[in-house]
Structures are given as C-alpha cells and as structure tokens.
Specification:
heterodimer, A: mainly alpha, 2 domains, 10 helices, flat, B: 255 residues, alpha/beta, 7 helices, 25% strand
C-alpha cells in the first residue's frame, strides 16, 4: 500500500482563503507591537529629539498626570458628549430623509441635487461661519459635526434601502400587504443591517469632525487639548490626545461590530 | 371543460425607451388557464414569459389587452394569487416557520389556526425538523420548498411560478419537480408555470404554451395527454419522447 500523501501545504497568501485565527489576530497585534518598538527604539537611541517625538514613557507619564488631575476625564466627557449629540441629531434627520429617498423616486429627485451640492463643501470651511452664527459654545460644535456627517449619511442610508431586493418587495405584495406595510415589515427590516453598518462608519467620521470643531474654538475637549499643547510645544500631550481619540474610535467601532453580530445573526456571508 | 380561471385576451406589451425604437415585448398574446389546471409557458429567455407572469401577479401591466382572473380584471397584486420566484425570496431574518406564517398576516386567523396551517404546510413540503432554521442555513432546494409552502399556506385561488427550479442543480430540480407533482396531485389548484425547460413543462403540465422571442408571442399550444398520477418515470415513456420532439420542433424553427 502506498503511504498516505501529506496534505498540500496551504499558503497564507491565497486569494480569499481563510487562515488560522491565531495568525489572523496575532499578526494584527504584532504589527502594533512592532510600531511601538520602533517608536521606543528611535527615541531611546536619540535619533529624534524629544521635542519632535517624545519617548513612549513620556506619553504614558502624561497619561497618568492627566488622569490624576482629572483633565483627561473632563476632555473625554466634553468630546464624547459633543460627538453623541451631533451625531444623533444628524442620524435622526438622515434616517427619515434617507429612507424616503431610497423608496420614492420623488424624494430622491427632490433632495439629491441639494445633498450632492452640500456634501462637496468641506465641513472645515463652515467653521468661521458657524462661529459667526452660533458663537463658540457647544451648538457650534454640533453644527460642524452635523455638516460633516449628515450629507454623507443620508446618501448611505438611501443606498442601504435601495439594496433591498425588489423580489422581496414584490413577494410581499402578493401576501396582500399595502405599500406602507411592505415598507415597515419588509424594506426597513431588510435594510436594517446595512443601516447599522452606516451608523458605525459615520460615527467613525464624526470623530474627525469633532477634532476639527474643537481645534478652533473650545476651552475643553480632546481637540482643544491637542491645539493648546501645540502652542506650548508639549508633544507628549499631542500624541496622547491623538492616541486617546484613536482608542475611543476603536471602542465605538467594536461596539457596533459586536452588536451587529448580536442583532443580525441571520445575515448571510458575514465573518464570525 | 370548466370556465377559464385566468383569461388573457390580446395582450400587448410595448416598451418605449427614451431613445431608439419601440420594443414589442409581447405581441397579441391570448391564453386561458382553467380551474385546477396546470399550464406551463415554455420559451427561451427574453421571450416575455416572465413579463406575462408578472402581469398575472399584478406586478406589471399590459400596454393593451384584457387579463381577467375569475371573470374580473386584474388590478394589482392580491392575496388570491400565490407566487414563487426563481430567486430566493425568503425573508432572511425569519426562520422557516416564521417565513411561512408571514404570508398569513392578511388572513386574520386565530393563533391556533395559523399554527395548524403552518404545520400542515411544513409537512406538505417535507420540511419537518427544519422549522427553526434561517434561510442562510438552508440549501437552494430547501429554500424553494419554504417558498412553495408560503405561497400555498394562505389558500390562494391560483399559483404563479416563475422558473422556480431554474437556479437549482439537476438532481435537486428533479426532486423538486416530483415534490410539486405530489403536492399538486394531492391539493388541486390552478397553476401557471413558467420555464425554459421543455422536459419540466411536459412532466408537470396538463397543457403547454410555447412562446418564441422577438417579438414574444405564443406559437403553439400542446395538450399533454400523459395520464396522472405521474412521477419522473414518465420521462422514459415513448409518449413523452413524442411530445418532447413536437415542442422542440416548434422552438427550433422559430429561433
């Protein structure tokens, strides 16, 4: 009898082929660890002066300083509050408008030129105008977040709705459902996973606009902290601020991904 | 012969594109489907057979002509007709039981009555043991079983099927054809069945209309006189071969 042939060795680099989870997760962690190591190395060997790039230890020290004097908590609280209010206002408006545009050609025709026009206007350019109109309070931050988020969000929700298979709508009519019932029981239900993903993506963008809003006119918040640190050449504070925003963004992203799997276990062809 | 259940008289469907000439999708189509009769329309893709079925379902409309169900004009989709598409049209967020039950929404029955009907139809299509699975967990054949059960559960007067087995592999398709034969022989219902598969049309139908393309029109009407009850075995009979040759002849001369 011939000896059994050894299984063909599977390369890690095959198009769209699954790889072991240990390698999938491990490589991601390893890359971040490697970047931290390089950061530590170039600062420890004195390749870069601390004014331009402080050592990781200096940033960690700044983190503990800000935790102990409460500054970090105040900044995070102010920024998270602004981003939540701004994003929620945008979402509450984008949902009905996007759903109408995705379902009814009339509303698509009505709103699309207006939205297309606005979405190419950079939100940053509205900062002077919003300060003029609303002063430097929180409402000015909300408005920048709104301008940055809303116009993209509407179009994405419209697409989520349009992606619902027409056959699913037609079969529902054959069960005697009215168009409003089809909209409620079928279209919205089928579009929900896509809309949830849109929430995740747009909340990520909202972090960018938050910093834009806080860089210019604020007296508390993560963006403000970064801006002020620049004036005093506190590079460690700047880097800490950037990392904190990154981590907060990552947490919200994972919260949405996790809840997606929880809410929509029936979705086909998703990893996990 | 009983009165026609579905009657189409001089149906035309003409598309007028923004640019270019008018396209005649369906030319002067007339046909009838009698009460409890199984009728197929067989033809190549693009001959307008699916468009006609969509009209019967009330999901599309004719440019001219008359289309009646039980004597009254078809105005739109309704609970008096059940439909099965080629694409899988199950609601992905509902399991097998919930998918079938969804079709009863507008029948306003008691919970016990709904449960009884759903259970009865799960058994009818042989889905016992799969009740709690979601569409993503089912094979193509299983999904179409659910779709058939869902189209029958609310007791429509007529079943409209648009190439329901077209996306299935040959073996599953044969199983599904036999299943449909059994179901239909047990529970007679008026069926209009669309297919491009000549064998499928002969096996299942009492009568077959042959449509050809450009413009889409009916070229022949053939009575299938193979006795019932039938099984897939009849495909081996000499009469089946004759009918097959006849249908094939009509289709070939016109393409």
């Amino acid at each position: 009898m011939q000896p059994a042939q050894a299984p063909r060795r599977q390369s890690l680099l095959e198009l769209r082929v699954e790889i072991p989870a240990s390698i999938y997760i491990g490589s991601g962690v390893a890359l971040i660890a490697a970047l931290l190591f390089v950061w530590w190395l170039v600062t420890a060997l004195g390749f870069v002066p601390p004014l331009f790039l402080p050592a990781p230890a200096a940033v960690v020290k700044e983190l503990f300083n800000q935790i102990s004097d409460g500054a970090l908590w105040l900044d995070v609280k102010a920024s998270v509050y602004r981003i939540m209010v701004g994003w929620v206002i945008s979402t509450l408006l984008a949902l009905p408008v996007g759903i109408l545009m995705g379902n009814f050609k009339f509303f698509e025709g009505l709103f699309e030129p207006f939205i297309d026009l606005f979405r190419y206007m950079p939100a940053v350019a509205f900062v002077p105008l919003t300060i003029l109109w609303m002063g430097v309070g929180d409402s000015q931050k909300f408005s920048i977040l709104f301008i940055g988020t809303f116009f993209q969000q509407v179009l994405m929700i419209m697409d989520n709705v349009k992606n619902v298979q027409i056959d699913l709508i037609q079969i529902s009519y054959t069960f005697g459902l009215s168009k409003w019932e089809v909209l409620r029981y079928v279209v919205l239900r089928a579009a929900l996973p896509g809309i949830w993903d849109t929430f995740r993506i747009t909340l990520g963008w909202a972090w960018t606009y938050l910093v834009v809003a806080e860089l210019v006119a604020a007296n508390v918040g993560l963006g403000y902290r970064i801006m002020r640190a620049q004036r005093f050449l506190q590079t460690d504070t700047i880097i800490l601020g950037i990392i904190v925003i990154g981590v907060l963004g990552l947490i919200t992203d994972y919260a949405f991904k996790f809840s997606y799997r929880l809410f929509f276990p029936w979705v086909e062809g998703k990893r996990g | 012969m009983s009165d026609p259940k579905l009657e189409a008289k001089n149906i035309w469907k003409i598309f007028t594109p923004r640019k270019g000439e008018q396209v005649v999708a369906i030319e002067n189509l007339s046909l009838t489907v009698n009460e409890n009769e199984f009728v197929s329309i067989v033809g190549p893709s693009g001959c307008g057979k699916s468009t006609f079925l969509a009209m019967a379902a009330g999901l599309d409309y004719a440019s001219s002509g008359s289309l009646t169900l039980g004597g009254s004009q078809i105005q739109g989709p309704g609970i008096d007709r059940g439909m099965v598409f080629q694409s899988y049209t199950l609601f992905p967020w509902l399991n097998v039981t919930e998918n079938i039950r969804f079709a009863l929404k507008k029948r306003y029955l008691s919970d016990t009555e709904q449960n009884r009907l759903v259970q009865q139809h799960i058994e009818l299509v042989g889905l016992q043991g799969f009740e709690k699975l979601f569409p993503a967990q089912l094979s193509g054949g299983m999904r179409q079983r659910v779709a058939i059960a869902r189209a029958l559960v609310y007791k429509p007067d007529m079943l409209l099927m648009d190439e329901p087995f077209g996306a299935l592999d040959a073996q599953t398709r044969m199983q599904m054809q036999e299943l449909l034969l059994t179901v239909w022989q047990q529970h007679r219902i008026t069926v209009l069945f669309i297919t491009h598969d000549i064998d499928e049309a002969i096996l299942l139908s009492d009568r077959v209309y042959v449509m050809t393309a450009r413009p889409g029109k009916i070229n022949a009407e053939i009575q299938i006189d193979i006795p019932r009850p039938r099984t897939a075995e009849v495909e081996l009979s000499p009469r089946f071969a004759e009918l097959r040759r006849e249908l094939f002849g009509v289709l070939r001369t016109k393409i």
